[in-house]
Write a structure and sequence with these properties.
This protein is α+β, with helices and mostly antiparallel strands and 500 residues long. The chain contains 14 helices and 20 strands. This is FAD dependent oxidoreductase domain-containing protein.
């Protein structure tokens, strides 16, 4: 394969002028081989995924290899597998603590090409609505740690984007959890009262600075301007181009010495030393050769079971194919305040739980475009145990392209024929996420395999779990102890405990 010198021209979403890595090579093709596209290996990242809305155009580091050849002779302090938000944040935080560390990152496809570059553009704290369930399962102390981590993680992401002047279209927006049935809205209102009681009783332990406002019945419909809803819970959220945010993290890591190897698929992990101790080394076999590391970090999300048979055997991690669509309303949305918001609606009767909406704002690339995600309820399998993101589900695509007229109402959405014509110019894409039975990530040491660590399975909520989880993981790996704020329910070991 012919290699290209990385040019110094800044492109959309670039953060820093190339310095230490300006002589790196960019792989010209999206294929890691110099001939035909490699065959798809079941469970591993597909070599030709659908084109994500966020990745057009590709970032300048999309196909970067920091060194032309894979560094197979060096034993790295850390080998990180995966370049999404979990991997990028882990590398950035490790090298920020100690720039003398040697860190190698392996990415099977282009940089940030997994779920981090394929979601709907939300960064919000929606899972705090589960706090009553968390209290019942884990006790109040741990439940509040989970809730606080979620809000702190979103705050950390906002501060990161601001501190490093990241050009990813980060917007503070009013967001809401919307409800179509009275039963579900009643439960939501009860949770808000529960949250308020917690805040009065334990003001220092609850999530800070993001109060909820409840609208009921006609008040909700008048305020949110969605004609079919029974209620709304509003608060502050954020929208962004997630791909550009993660690429900024990777660039900062590169500035600090990260060796990034895109189009390099990890295929097998082998522990090569004797008794577990500080000198334990790992070999990671890839399609370009075998690399070595004292510690290996799995940041592989829904692809984790294919790479690690032990985790696969727990059946605790379930890959799920998510789908999104970028559509254009028939009406001009620029002056309509309804399109200045984002939302998730959990009980929509057609598409199933977890549908969500974000809108590209004036000044953004693609301003006025509405991003819809979800629709798994239309799939007999709910898209579970699928890792092929090279295709879209036609039924889900039709649903996501057409649901806007129902949710927003005709008065907001505009003429149906114009909307259908506009939608035809947009596109659909898929991405692989990972779910756990309890809805929480898997973070920490892999039991019985010294030097192997994981921050995976963000349950489609990586922008609100991963950055802070990476901070906890780095603390564990460098000090041997989890920080006091880290929730016990996130522990990686619970995957094996659930198997028993």
């Amino acid at each position: 394969m012919r290699s290209l010198q990385l040019v110094n021209t800044l492109t959309a979403g670039s953060l820093l002028a190339p310095t230490a890595w300006s002589a790196a090579v960019a792989v010209e093709s999206n294929s890691p081989s110099c001939s035909d596209t490699p065959a798809y290996l079941e469970g591993f990242p597909h070599p030709n995924p659908t084109k994500s809305y966020w990745q057009d155009p590709p970032h300048r580091i999309a196909n970067l290899r920091s060194t032309p050849d894979l560094p197979t002779e060096q034993v790295f302090d850390y080998v990180i597998i995966g370049s999404g938000v979990s991997g990028a944040a882990t590398a950035f935080k490790l090298l920020s603590r100690d720039p003398d560390l040697s860190v190698l990152m392996l990415e099977a496809r282009s940089a940030a090409s997994g779920a981090s570059g394929r979601n709907g553009g939300h960064c919000r704290t929606g899972d705090y609505q589960l706090v009553k369930e968390w209290v019942d399962l884990y006790g109040e102390d741990e439940a509040l740690k989970v809730g606080k981590l979620e809000q702190d993680c979103v705050n950390d992401m906002r501060e990161f984007v601001s501190k490093y002047n990241v050009s990813s279209g980060w917007r503070n927006v009013e967001t809401a959890d919307l409800y179509y049935t009275k039963e579900q809205f009643k439960k939501a209102a009860e949770v808000i009262e529960f949250q308020r009681e917690l805040a009065q009783r334990r003001p220092d332990d609850v999530p800070q600075g993001n109060p909820r406002t409840v609208y009921s019945g006609q008040d909700a419909r008048d305020y949110w301007q969605w004609p079919e809803i029974m209620g709304a819970v509003t608060y502050t959220g954020h929208t962004q181009n997630p791909y550009l945010t993660v690429c900024a993290m990777l660039e900062l890591g590169l500035e600090k010495g990260l060796n990034l190897q895109t189009h390099t698929m990890a295929l097998q992990l082998t522990q090569v030393s004797g008794p577990p101790d500080a000198s334990t080394e790992w070999e990671v076999k890839t399609d370009r050769g075998t690399v070595k590391g004292t510690k290996v970090v799995l940041a592989t999300n829904g692809f984790t079971p294919a790479l690690h048979p032990g985790l696969a055997s727990t059946h605790f991690l379930t890959p799920v194919r998510n789908q999104a669509a970028a559509v254009r309303p028939g009406a001009d949305t620029a002056q309509n305040p309804v399109f200045k918001r984002s939302s998730t609606y959990s009980d929509q009767p057609m598409g199933g739980p977890g549908d969500y909406v974000t809108v590209r704002q004036p000044g953004d690339a693609g301003a006025g475009t509405v991003i819809y995600g979800g629709g798994q309820g239309l799939s007999p399998t709910r898209e579970q145990n699928l890792t092929d993101d090279s295709v879209v589900n036609a039924d889900i695509a039709a649903y996501l392209r057409g649901i806007g007229r129902l949710t927003y109402g005709h008065a907001n959405w505009g003429d149906a024929n114009a909307a259908e014509s506009a939608a035809a110019a947009q596109h659909d894409w898929t991405g692989i996420v990972c779910h756990t039975p309890d809805g929480l990530p898997v973070v920490g040491a892999v039991p019985g395999e010294a030097g192997l660590w994981a921050s995976v399975c963000m349950n489609g909520h990586g922008m609100a779990w991963a950055f802070r989880s990476a901070e906890a993981l780095v603390e564990m790996m460098t000090t041997g102890e989890a920080p006091g704020w880290f929730p016990e329910p996130f522990r990686a070991g619970r995957a094996w405990e659930a198997k028993r």
